[in-house]
């Protein structure tokens, strides 16, 4: 059985789709999978079971990237195609069963829209796939020596979604004052712009582990799985943390938590006051973030007992 899965170009949306993929893996244990996604999201699927190919869709003028995808897929009969990009590609392929998500923005959680495509209620939660080597390296970087690692995600894909860096520093120091075992891990993506956004936090937390922005998506997932907590802006990193099933606190102001809150068993949000989806991040105070983080860690600790 051959399954074609067309998912997002953006990392966060692609992560939200992994729960649907995990469902298909269990539903069709003999199937192989071809993933079509954007280059930024491609690494997410590197260790996915029974993935035979990832097709990276590089955006081209006049939607020619869809023609490229059709050319790469037309030579096979597909038993099932799941298309989260609302394209018409599958209608020009030999497909036994197709599920195509309708386009346009809709109210409610994005993960619910994804689950509805296969009539799944509740929607399946995101997952991560990492290698044994990545987990071993993560254990070396974040050893079990009594330290409680707190992952900080101080960047985002645009500046309006970023909580001021000095508040990330203040929030961590307040948490560390309450528990001296805490140590920060600074996570951010590749490129100079990402580095520049993270640098003010790195410089003010000299005991932080700076991951350097050079790790792959799955390497970061392996690190996150060893952390006590993630605090970060609405971003792909936030969704990756939630998919790693660690306590995840997403910070929202200029984006809508009702659509993109961290989807995981321990996902929580702290929201800036003001118009929903258009509230300045500067309105989100340190005390609110610290209190929410402390409550989340306490709840998680009680659940483990």
TrEMBL record:
Please, which domain of life does this record's source organism belong to?
Bacteria
A single GO BP term for this record reads: lipopolysaccharide core region biosynthetic process
Pfam families assigned to the protein according to its UniProt record, in alphabetical order: Glyco_transf_9
Q: Name one GO cellular component term.
A: cytosol
Question: Keywords for this entry?
Answer: Glycosyltransferase, Transferase
Which Gene3D superfamilies does this chain map to?
A: Glycogen Phosphorylase B
Q: Name one GO molecular function term.
A: ADP-heptose-lipopolysaccharide heptosyltransferase activity
Q: What PANTHER family does the entry give?
A: TETRAACYLDISACCHARIDE 4'-KINASE-RELATED (PTHR30160)
In Swiss-Prot or TrEMBL terms, this protein is called Glycosyltransferase family 9 protein
Identify the species of origin.
Komagataeibacter xylinus
């Amino acid at each position: 059985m051959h399954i074609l899965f067309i998912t997002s170009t953006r990392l966060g949306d692609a992560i939200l789709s992994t729960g649907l993929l995990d469902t298909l893996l269990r539903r069709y244990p003999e199937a192989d999978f071809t993933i079509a996604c954007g280059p930024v999201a491609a690494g997410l699927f590197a260790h996915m079971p029974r993935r035979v190919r990832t097709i990276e869709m590089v955006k081209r003028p006049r939607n020619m990237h869809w023609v490229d995808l059709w050319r790469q897929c037309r030579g096979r009969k597909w038993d099932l195609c799941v298309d989260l990009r609302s394209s018409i590609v599958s209608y020009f392929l030999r497909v036994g069963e197709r599920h195509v998500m309708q386009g346009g923005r809709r109210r409610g959680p994005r993960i619910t829209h994804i689950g509805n495509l296969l009539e799944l209620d509740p929607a399946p939660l995101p997952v991560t796939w990492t290698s044994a080597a990545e987990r071993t390296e993560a254990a070396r970087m974040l050893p079990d020596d009594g330290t409680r690692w707190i992952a900080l995600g101080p960047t985002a894909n645009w500046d309006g979604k970023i909580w001021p860096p000095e508040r990330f520093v203040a929030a961590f120091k307040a948490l560390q004052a309450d528990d001296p075992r805490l140590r920060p891990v600074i996570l951010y993506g590749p490129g100079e712009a990402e580095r520049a956004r993270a640098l003010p936090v790195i410089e003010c937390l000299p005991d932080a582990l700076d991951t350097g922005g050079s790790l792959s998506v799955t390497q970061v997932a392996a690190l996150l799985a060893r952390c006590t907590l993630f605090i970060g802006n609405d971003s792909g990193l936030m969704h990756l943390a939630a998919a790693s099933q660690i306590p995840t606190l997403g910070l929202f102001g200029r984006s809508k938590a009702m659509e993109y809150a961290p989807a995981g068993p321990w996902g929580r949000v702290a929201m800036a006051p003001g118009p929903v989806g258009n509230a300045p991040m500067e309105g989100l105070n340190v005390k609110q973030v610290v209190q929410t983080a402390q409550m989340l860690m306490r709840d998680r600790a009680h659940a483990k007992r």
